[in-house]
Amino acid sequence: MLIVGDLMLDHFVIGRVERISPEAPVPVVQFDHESFRLGGAANVAHNVAALGGTVEIAGVVGSDAEGARLMADLRAVGIGTGAVISDGTRCTTRKLRVVTTRNQQVARIDYESDQPVGAEVEQALVGRITDAAARADVVLISDYQKGAVTERTAHAAIAGARAKGVPSLVDPKVPHIDYYAGASVITPNHHEAGAVTHMRIRTNQEAIAAARRFRDLAGCESVLVTRGEQGMTLLGPDAEADFAAEAREVADVTGAGDTVIATMTLALAAGASLVDAARLANKAAGVVVGKFGPATVSIDELSER
């Protein structure tokens, strides 16, 4: 699999809260430990790798310590980084969360540049995407609107998939909806689908109607609308399906969309039908929301579910 998108580092600072500050009405967090996890498109890649897929990722990191850690962490879980470009003009996207030992989030600080990458970096990225797509069984765009997914890089990814005759999937951002024409499947959540179509999505019938409108506007083949506790709705070329939510216990929905598209993409690459791929993705989402922070699902967990 080739994954194209915005690479992030999720940084958790974890501590105990036993009192309120006398300086301001805020909790005092006594530091206990910190941890780092792959985030954004890197979390998508990690989910694919955890399910046994072979992954190459294309994106941008900064020439900084966070970028070096992110690259090392990607390689540590077997993700190919030959298509990642280091850009000294921007910082590596990092989300720093201050969290209590009870997994209650106190604050979040974002280190990021959301401007599109410069022309030289974009050109280099297009070349690496084109080369990597020629080796891929499926191409996935994970767009977090942090600069790596531009009109040119998105077109290169989708065109590369078409040239190879393999599917292309997109986890979208509303302002970039025009970038994804020709994609096999786009997976908006219900807020994104509503924003693009200007339609309310409360029932299964409204979800299918919005998916049809979304498909027309985006110019894609199929649409999977993720709807939180309402489950998911799939509109394919010759199939429609609704999937009830699978979560037994919700701890954190962070990164659940990453798990959905990673599982669906890997299933399609392995030969599953669109409906079966969506069903597996829904099962995987039901597992991952029971975990804290960006997380992955193992083969054993998915098989048991």
Short description:
By secondary structure, this protein is α/β, with parallel strands linked by helices.
Explain this structure to me?
The protein is of the alpha/beta class. The chain has a single domain, classed as Ribokinase (UDP-N-acetylmuramoyl-L-alanine:D-glutamate ligase, 3-Layer(aba) Sandwich), CATH 3.40.1190.20. It contains nine helices and 13 strands. It has helices at 41-50, 65-76, 119-133, 151-164, 190-197, 204-218, 256-269, 274-288, 299-304, and strands spanning 2-5, 7-20, 27-40, 56-62, 80-87, 93-100, 105-111, 139-142, 168-171, 185-186, 222-226, 232-235, 240-243. Strands 5-4-1-8-9-10-11-12-13 form a nine-stranded mixed beta sheet, sandwiched between helices. Strands 3-2-6-7 form a four-stranded mixed beta sheet. Strand 12 (232-235) and strand 13 (240-243) form a beta hairpin. Helix 5 (190-197) packs across helix 6 (204-218). The longest helix is centred in the middle third of the chain and has 15 residues, at 119-133.
Topology:
Elements: E1 2-5, E2 7-20, E3 27-40, H1 41-50, E4 56-62, H2 65-76, E5 80-87, E6 93-100, E7 105-111, H3 119-133, E8 139-142, H4 151-164, E9 168-171, E10 185-186, H5 190-197, H6 204-218, E11 222-226, E12 232-235, E13 240-243, H7 256-269, H8 274-288, H9 299-304
Helix pairs in contact: 1-7, 3-4, 5-6, 7-8
